[in-house]
Structures are given as structure tokens and as C-alpha cells.
Fold each of these.
Amino acid sequence: MIQIKYIGILLLLCLPLSTFAQKEERDYIRRGNRDFADSLFIDAEINYRKALDVNPQSTISMFNLANTLLQQNKLQEAMEMYSAGAKIEKDKLKLAHMYHNMGVIFHSQKEFAKAVEAYKESLRNNPKDDETRYNLALAQKQLNEQQQQNQDSDSNQQQQEQQ
């Protein structure tokens, strides 16, 4: 009985610490959101990183940080953040946004096959997203054109080798 009281007291003492950490995380996210809205991307990045220091599992912070990195053209870092968030996010709509943005990065780097897969994953999580559906169709078209060009250049090389 005495042990149960001590456990209860310990839980009550720990509760304010976790509440404080959640508030601190939310405050950093809010500051980051204000900075992002004001196009102060470096300041936004700092605040989102501070939020992640408080809660390393915060997918909101990961997503917002990735968006900020994307705005700064830090594509590799943004991709890593989206990937990390996608591994732990449970909400399908948020997952769809992460995969959509990953598709945008792949698309911008002309990695059309990877873009197609990212857009498909986004649509699996949110089938109603018309923008992603459009981006998927465009990436598929560009992938086909890229493959056709590769085939044409391969056949040209073979013809030159035969001559």
C-alpha cells in the first residue's frame, strides 16, 4: 500500500514536467509558424529544431522543418525530415502531405520513377487529392519520355557501333 502511494506521488510530480514540455514544444512550433509565414525561414528552422529537441517524435515539427528546408532549397535535408516523419506518422492526411512533398522533391531532381512512387503513396493515403493526381500523371508522362529518350540513345549507339 505504501509503494502505491509513492508511485502515485511520483506520477503527480512527473505530470507537470510533461505538460511543460508539451507547452514548450507548441510554443516553438507557433514561433516557427509565424517566422515561416513572414518568410523568415532560417528563424523558422531554428524554432522547429528547438521543438524537435523537446520532442524528437514530433511529426508536426518534422513536417514543418522539412517545409522550411525545402524553402531554403536544402532538398536532401528536407527529404530526410519527410522520410523520418513518414516512418512514425499515423494520420493518413499528414502522411499524404509528406509523400506529396517528397514527390515534388524527386520531381524537381528529375527522378521521375521515385516521384511516381511517392505520389502513388500519397494517393494511397488521400485518394481525393487532385493536385497529387495531376503531379502523378505529369511525372508518369515525363518518366515515359525519359525512358523513350534513353531507348533512342541506346539504339543510336548500337547503330554507330555496327557501322
Amino acid sequence: MRLLSWNIHKGIGGRDRRYSLARIIDCIETENPDLVCLQEVDRLVRRSRFDDQPRLLSGYFRCHSVFQANVQVGDGAYGNLVLSRWPVQSRHRVTLRLGSRKSRGAQLVLVDTPEGPLHLVNTHLGLAEHERRWQMTRLLGHMLFRAADRLPTVIVGDFNDWRNTLSGGLLAESGFSQVTSPVSRFRSFPSWLAIGSLDKAFVRGPVAVRHARIVKTSLSKAASDHLPLVVDFHLR
């Protein structure tokens, strides 16, 4: 099974600042993933021509989709999106907003894969280190997250964790191992000259990771300000 995680920056290129959802689609299609976890997806926002990106993406790939609106922008919003080749048995939204900071969130979906149920979490964490620690503590302790403790679990997304401090603390204590390690192999931001390993993946339970990589093509470098992360895995 193949999973792709990507902060698509609303479909706006990191360097040319040009909006093109077609570039995002082309990058995803080239990798042919079974599961897609996207962050910063626009829905009916002026900067992205009022496109309903969740509808357009799910329609193009003819897949199941779950959208989580986190930040209101005019009459529209942007947030996280999960696309799945396989049916989604359940879906939950966990708010990760700390005080007056920008609204953040996590999507918890149970996917009925050919190898069994998979608990998949798609998230986008805050910019401050104390904020990210609070958000991860809230997520890992949330009743909706804990309800799937016995299932194989994958957490992916834009962690904004420049110093990689979450992997050896809260996540390790909860039994998660980091797929995107060493961080020197997983630099994803900024896309045109990647120095930060911000896009991460963690697994727990019977999840066998075969291979993980950052997609470094001329198209992916132009399509967003982040590079996509691809993880190939099986449920043991």
C-alpha cells in the first residue's frame, strides 16, 4: 500500500506564487498512492479561484474523501483532506486550537484496506514548540484517538517540527516509531531548496514500512512550498 502526505499550500507554487491545482494533481497521479493526506487545502477561497478543491480532487481521482475545515477565509475555508482508494468506515475531527492561535486540527479516519482496518491520522501542527507539544498531548489523549488503540495506526502530516523534538518524547512514549528518520533524508521545506524535515510519518502496531522517501522532481518543487512524502507499507 502506498500513502502520500503533502502540504499543498492551497495549490500555490512556492516560488512562482502561481495557482495551479493541475500541478498538484499531476504530482499525486505520478506517485499513484492508495491513500492521500493533504494539508492546506482550499474550499471556495478567492486566492484559489473559489475552487472547491476537496470536490475537484476526489472527483478527479474517483475516490472516497474526508475534508476538515480548520481556518475560515471569507465565505470559504482551508484545512486537511484525506483521499482513499478504499471505503472509510468512520471519521472524526479533533480540534487542536490553542487559545487565540490559528485554528489547527487532526483527522482520524478508519480505512477498510484489503489488508485490514487502518487507523489513519492526518494533521497540521502549529508553529511554536510549546503549541505543538500541547497539540500532540491533546491528540494522543483524546478519547476518539484512544478508541482505536488496538488498531495499526499511522500519523502523518506537516508537523512544523524543525528540531524533531516530538519523536523522542510524546510519540515514543505512546509506542510510535518515526518513519521519516534520519531527518537528513527527509528534508521537505522549502520545496525549491529543502532544509527542514517538517513533513513526517509515525507508525504503531503491525505496520511494516517497506520504503519512505521525499518526492524531489521539478514538478513537485514548483507545485507547492513543501515536497510530498511517500510511504510504502503493509499491515502485518
Amino acid sequence: MAQLFEVHPDNPQARLLKQAVALLEKGGVLAVPTDSSYALVCHLDDKAAADSLRRIRGVDDKHHLTLLCRDLSELASYARVDNRQFRLLKNATPGPYTFILEASKEVPRRLSHPARKTIGLRLPDHKVLQELLALLGAPLLATTLIPPGDTEPLNDAQEIRERFEHQIAAVLDAGACPMQATTVVDLSGDAPQLVRQGRGPLAALGL
């Protein structure tokens, strides 16, 4: 059965986050809060965990997964970013935005879009998730926690645990999330292209 870690949203207990990191390093899929909604996450380098993530979410390899990064320098290690893109990213992060960028060689080919070689990246503005990423020391592979057949993400940690108790290793419960998807912007072309209007305001992107 999935573990439930009740963490303080502003001062998360390090011992609980360390237990969560240990589960990730063993190949576990976790449900974690973000500044937009709950997300399913796993270790970037674990193929079996990534396959499990897609299976739980009910998506194929053409669905853009997202790398959750700690800062812009980490993001730039996993994506090809020019000066124009970097300025836009700097203005809008951290926050509820997902950016589609050309994946660098640091991203395993199996994780990028099979045709476009792109990957989703974001810098979440959530204390619990930021500290989890810092302890892990690497990005997390993520997807919004929308159950197959549903249209809205789940927002209650207990419900998430009950519905996925045999599919995930743990839930980090830091209270309810805004329950609104990120704004998705494709930066892989000549000009920024809005893919999905979500929680992040477009003014910060100059769109």
C-alpha cells in the first residue's frame, strides 16, 4: 500500500523528504504537490519507473512528459536554450509554466518526443517540491495526476492514495493544490507558441 507522508507546506520535515527520495531511488512512482496541481513523478534515469508513470497516467510515448528542475542552470543542462529563450524563462520562473524545448543529450532519448526530440521542462514554485528536488540532486520526470478517463487532476492526498494505493509508492500530502494545469508554451520553434492556457498568466511571457 502506498505510504502517506504528511509534510508541512512551508517547512517540510527533512526526514520525510529523505524517505521519499529513498523510494524514488528504488524505482518508486510518487504523487507530489506542485504550484498547479498534484503530479506523478519518478526518477529520470529509471526506465521501468518511467514506463510505470505512463501506464498509471494512461498515455503513450507521444505524450510530453515534463522534467521538474530546481533552477535555470539545471534546466539549461537538459534543453537547448538560446539567449532569447533564456530571457523569457528568467522572467517567468519559478511558476506554473511548462516550456517545450529541444532536448539536450542529457535527456534519455526514450523520454523525449519520438518525432520532435523535445521535452517539457518547468521550475515549480512549491517549497515541498523544491526541497525534494534539492535532496534528490536531479530533475524529476513528471506528469499531471489526471486519472485515465478523467479530465481534471486529483487534489486530495487521501483520495490519491486510495485510488492508486497499489500503483504508486507514496503520496506527499502538503494540503490542497490550486488544481489548475500549467500554462504550456512551445519554445522549440522560431517564436513562442501557446499550447495551453493555464494558471500562469501570459503577461509574464510577453504573449
